[in-house]
């Protein structure tokens, strides 16, 4: 019986904490769009590139940069993958719209 004197306040305290987190989530918009976050990973978004020469990112700063060559290589790489990615994204969007 003495254990109830500990468990009831402990349970009420945990309930208050959970209710506080729930209220915080509702007020901060965490529950506004539940479907977008679940499907965001399915779509291909291009991320911004880091500036060239920044240590640990992009090309090393001591490598000469030929903009025309880089642009041609970049365009060829993306053109080969864009069509397949577009078809896959369209397929996923069609499935989401029908469900």
Walk me through the structure.
This protein is an all-alpha fold and 99 residues long. The protein is elongated and about 70 Å long. The longest helix has 32 residues, at 67-98. It is 63% helix and 0% strand. Residues 59-64 have low confidence and may be disordered. It has 2 domains: 1-32; 34-42 and 64-99, no CATH class.
The major sheet is characterized as: none
User: Treating each run of at least 4 consecutive H or I residues as one helix, how many helices?
Assistant: 3
| Strand percentage | under 5%
SS-derived structural category:
mainly alpha
Number of strands: 0
The overall average pLDDT, rounded, is 75
Number of domain units: 2
Unreliable stretches, pLDDT < 50, 5 or more residues?
A: 59-64
Provide tags for this entry.
single chain, 99 residues, mainly alpha, 2 domains, elongated
In short:
The protein has helices at 4-27, 34-39, 67-98. With 99 residues, the chain is mainly alpha-helical. It has two domains: 1-32; 34-42 and 64-99, no CATH class.
